[in-house]
Write a structure and sequence with these properties.
Elements (H helix, E strand, L loop, with lengths): L5 H9 L1 H5 L6 E3 L6 E5 L4 H6 L6 H12 L5 E5 L17 H6 L1 H11 L3 E5 L1 H8 L3 H4 L4 E3 L2 E6 L2 H6 L3 H19 L5
Parallel strand pairs: 2-3, 2-4, 4-6
Antiparallel strand pairs: 1-3, 5-6
Length: 187
């Protein structure tokens, strides 16, 4: 992906989250016409440290799923490029108004990467892009900018329930298969 344009950086740095945390996390992987764009909600502690999305525990699970599903052409980013923290500096989930504000960033990533398909990870990312809960979108396809989109739960949810190697991998593989079908891709 080209460098983040000044107009995008200006909007990111204008948000109060930037005052709490100056690290902007954009993406990793193939940023030019990947088969899949995978969007999570926001960076966590490891992502914030390294400046890359999905490099912590959830990222290791996601990388395992990608390999198991035979996905090697992807770009990974988040709807929100800044780590949300509360008044005490503790990491928290994104708020609805933050998701609404940062939709410009997700849309910019979609336009710039120009993926064939979009996969959201978790309720925040799914709501931001499809205005649905993840459980309502799983197994179905919506569209964003004409591209097929579906979602699964965030890897952290599968990790918390110790289902990353069972339900998580199954859901991810089914989502990949569904998107490939809908996107006219080789299965």
């Amino acid at each position: 992906m080209k460098r983040t344009p000044a107009r995008i950086l200006k909007k990111i740095t204008a948000h109060p989250l930037f005052d709490e945390n100056k690290q902007i996390v954009v993406g990793r992987g193939n940023s030019h016409k990947p088969e899949f764009l995978i969007l999570g909600e926001a960076p966590g502690k490891q992502e914030n440290r390294q400046g890359l999305p999905f490099v912590g525990r959830a990222g290791r699970v996601l990388d395992k799923w990608l390999g198991a599903a035979g996905v090697d052409d992807f770009y990974i980013s988040n709807v929100i490029p800044l780590m949300p923290v509360d008044e005490r500096g503790k990491i928290r989930g994104p708020r609805k108004n933050e998701l609404e504000y940062f939709i410009f960033f997700a849309d910019w990533v979609i336009r710039e990467a120009d993926p064939r398909c979009i996969l959201t990870l978790g309720d925040s990312a799914t709501w931001a892009l499809a205005k649905m809960r993840t459980r309502d979108l799983m197994g179905r396809v919506s569209r964003r900018d004409g591209k097929p989109l579906t979602g699964i739960f965030h890897p952290a949810r599968y990790i918390r329930s110790n289902q990353q190697d069972s339900a998580g991998l199954r859901d991810f593989t089914q989502a990949v298969h569904l998107l490939r079908e809908q996107g006219g891709l080789q299965i």
